[in-house]
Design a protein that fits this description.
CheC-like_sf; 8 helices; membrane; disordered N terminus; about 30% helix; FliN-like_C; six-stranded antiparallel beta sheet; alpha+beta; Chemotaxis protein chec; flagellum; cell membrane
Length: about 290
């Protein structure tokens, strides 16, 4: 096999990436999971921490598992009506830091890597149990998504939860504590995501009607709207002379409507107004009209 054939084979062996719609829905769900998990963990710990979604990508199981922290610990989960497997993995030292906080003995530096004691394992089970609750409650349907903690895995890099070539979605989550920042990894099989309505669509096929769960997730995404009052230009010498109380003449005439844009694209026209004690905006024309 030539080098070109090898490269082509490796490209076709890579799992398909989620479509932009599915990826947005997944991001919305996982962002809510992080928010709920941060809140519940802070109630258990003696110090502050933050969880922040970093990035999701598609990969094979063997690549994802081989890149997990080692040594480490992971929650082996069962999600959805079919109880598909999922893995939520952390480094050993991060788990030790969290457990120490729960026991009232916060770490002053990163602890040495060692096995958890029976008491510490019980604390880890409590922490990982909150992961299942957050995953379940963050689901944007009337009924929570089924999720249960099957077991705690020691050395998840050596686990055999998935077949080597199974396509997964790998999500990296930044976990910030007083000791510093590390990343947790959440693995989800693409087939399992499809079962709960977050599925990929082949570009060469007609896309199916969006699942209700996917549509509900997408509708929860925040969108930033920008109302532009106007703009102006001036020389640097004039800019340096500006002080409190000065007026800036804008290029927008008083009688002209203001523009509302999303991602730099004009969507609406309107006029500023007052809504109680807050500034408001009244739409007088829409791009859809």
């Amino acid at each position: 096999m030539t080098d070109t054939e090898v490269k082509a084979a490796s490209v076709f062996a890579e799992p398909r990436r989620l479509t932009s719609g599915a990826n947005r829905a997944l991001t919305a769900w996982q962002t809510t999971v992080c928010s709920m998990l941060q809140e519940s963990w802070q109630a258990l710990l003696g110090s502050d921490l933050t969880l922040r979604l970093v990035k999701s990508d598609s990969t094979t199981a063997i690549k994802a598992v081989n890149n997990l922290a080692d040594p480490g610990y992971a929650a082996r989960l069962r999600i959805g009506p079919s109880s598909f497997p999922s893995v939520f993995a952390f480094s050993s030292r991060m788990v030790q830091v969290l457990v120490n906080d729960m026991l009232g003995t916060p770490s002053e530096e990163w602890p040495e890597v060692r096995e958890l004691s029976p008491v510490e394992t019980s604390m880890a089970e409590l922490l990982f149990g909150e992961i299942t609750r957050s995953i379940s409650q963050a689901w944007p349907e009337v009924e929570p998504l089924e999720c249960e903690l099957e077991s705690i895995i020691s050395r998840p890099m050596r686990s055999r939860v998935y077949g080597p070539d199974e396509p997964l979605v790998r999500t990296r989550i930044a976990l910030q504590t007083a000791m510093g920042q590390e990343e947790a990894v959440w693995l989800l099989p693409q087939a399992g995501l499809a079962e709960i309505g977050i599925a990929e669509t082949h570009e060469d096929e007609s896309p199916p009607a969006p699942a209700p769960q996917l549509r509900t997730l997408a509708e929860q995404l925040p969108v930033q709207l920008v109302v532009e009052l106007g703009s102006t230009s001036m020389r640097l010498s004039e800019l340096n002379r500006l002080k409190t109380g000065d007026y800036l003449p804008l290029d927008q005439a008083v009688f002209q409507p203001l523009e509302v844009s999303i991602d730099g694209r004009l969507q609406w026209l309107g006029h500023p107004c007052r809504l109680g004690v807050r500034q408001g905006f009244q739409i007088i024309a829409s791009k859809k009209d």
